[in-house]
Amino acid sequence: MRPAPNRRGSTEPTARSLSDDQSRSDDLATLYPFLYAHPQDVGQASSVAGNLETVLAEVRRSTVEKVHEIVALRREVLARESQRLAACASAMAESFANGGRLFAIGNGGSCTDAADLASLFLHPGSGRRALPAFALTGDIAVLTALSNDVSFDVVFARQIAAFGRRGDVVVGLSTSGNSTNLVRAFEEAGRRGLLTVGLAGYEGGAMAELGSIDHLFVVPSASVHRIQEAQTTIYHTLWELTLNELTTGRRDPARLGAT
User: Is residue 210 included in any domain, yes or no?
Assistant: First the structure.
């Protein structure tokens, strides 16, 4: 097969600029500095072996450091938000008890978290009641049609307008808090009387400025990785508390804060 023409119409591979390659290398070096620390004399086997041991030691140190960081962040968020998490779960339980449904939304990694959240309620495990929950990221035909014909900014708002009823729940996840399609979705949900729950990072972004989010949980971190890991803990906690509220009518915020 002949290679496809590049942008100049030639079938020859397009050369990458040295500056592009250097930029990529610099970015990786910033994220993983220990992978770019070379010994002075790489020609000697002993130096290469020594460098490998150094890299492995740095990988171990970096991994342990990240584990401690996310554990501390999760504890901070749960301790600070325990009362509000319990109140949010109680509101979600009331919505389900009255026939409400949950719609989960997010982009990129937050899209997979939204799907995970919906699956938790749909498949809660043996002996637990399955609840109606939907990830609005799952219908690729709808997403591509709206993105192509209207705008990616409305992919969630249009679905909420079509499916949402007063008393349903919308949970939106964003690391930055600035996703326009989530902002539009929350505004639409607020107009229609849905219960709205937001998970954001950094300082909350645009989501923190909205008056249409009933319960907003902000993870105070500038690391996308740590934010998403902590958000996973938040929505799993909401799921557990919601099921507990529906099953027993009881919740224990003090115990949650001590987790």
Answer: yes
> In the structure encoding, which two tokens stand for residue 118, read together?
């919906």
CB 185 within 8 A of CB 114: no
Q: What is the pLDDT of residues 177-230, one digit of tens each?
A: 999 999 999 999 999 999 999 999 999 999 999 999 999 999 998 889 899 999
Q: Given the structure tokens 């079509």, which residue do they identify?
A: 162
DSSP for 106-174 reads ESTHHHHHHHHHHHHHHS--TTS----EEETTS-HHHHHHHHHHT-GGGTTHHHHHHH--TT-EEEEE-
Find where tokens 């989530």 sit.
182
How far apart (Å, rounded) are the C-alpha atoms in residues 108 and 125?
Answer: 27
Does residue 156 form part of some domain? yes
Measured in degrees and rounded to the nearest 5, phi and psi for residue 201 equal -125, -170
The two structure tokens encoding residue 71: 């554990």
How many domains does the chain fold into? 1
Range of the domain at 144: 81-257
pLDDT tens for each residue of 73-127: 778 888 888 899 999 999 999 999 999 999 999 999 999 999 999 999 999 987 7
Strand order in the sheet with 169-173: 133-135, 102-106, 169-173, 195-201, 215-219
